Amino acid sequence: MELARFWRHVAMSPLKARRCFTPATLDRLQARIAEAEKRHRGEIRFVVEAELTTEQLWRGITSRERSREVFASQGVWNTAENNGVLIYLLLADRRVEIVADRGIDARVDPSEWQAICRMMEAHFREGGFEEGALAGVDAVSELLARHFPGGGERPNELEDRPTVM
């Protein structure tokens, strides 16, 4: 286990995460996701996790591995067109991961997902949590609109409200 990473996670708390993502910020993110989903048939799920547990750190769980676990537990894989996208932020590591279901992932080059992650991380390094999150939602929505354009009424399959864990 990397000692510096361990201390970053110990020092992080859900309270600090809620300072970065205030109720007002979560409201704006929810509204942006709901509005974005009117332009395409995809589903966006945004999750912020403050820190990993000591056990997860001891096992060496990476942000990518954890994002896949959250993808499954949040049911992002369970959309009618297999086009759900998870935007996952592990706040203690300031790492963003995007996990896309097979319907959209097969159509988007991995470098496009990575570019969105790096752009968001750059905002977060400067303390621009809301700006980075909104920009990330917009960028993911752009890709979804390109590959799954909107068309008529459709159910909202995933919760639009971001989750802070």
Describe the protein in words:
With 165 residues, this protein is of the alpha/beta class. It has helices spanning 3-11, 14-20, 23-36, 54-58, 63-73, 102-105, 110-125, 129-147, and strands at 43-49, 84-90, 95-100, 163-164. It has one domain (3-149, 157-164): Roll (Diaminopimelate Epimerase, Chain A, domain 1). It is built from 8 helices and 4 strands; from the N terminus they run αααβααββαααβ. The chain has a 4-stranded mixed sheet, with helices on both faces. The two termini are 22 Å apart.
Number of helices, counting only DSSP H or I runs of 4 residues or more: 8
Number of strands: 4
The top-level CATH class is Alpha Beta
Helix content percent band:
40-55%
CATH hierarchy: architecture: Roll
Structural class: alpha/beta
Number of domains: 1
- The ordered H/E elements are HHHEHHEEHHHE
List low-confidence stretches: none
- Main beta-sheet strand count, sense and barrel state: 4 strands, mixed
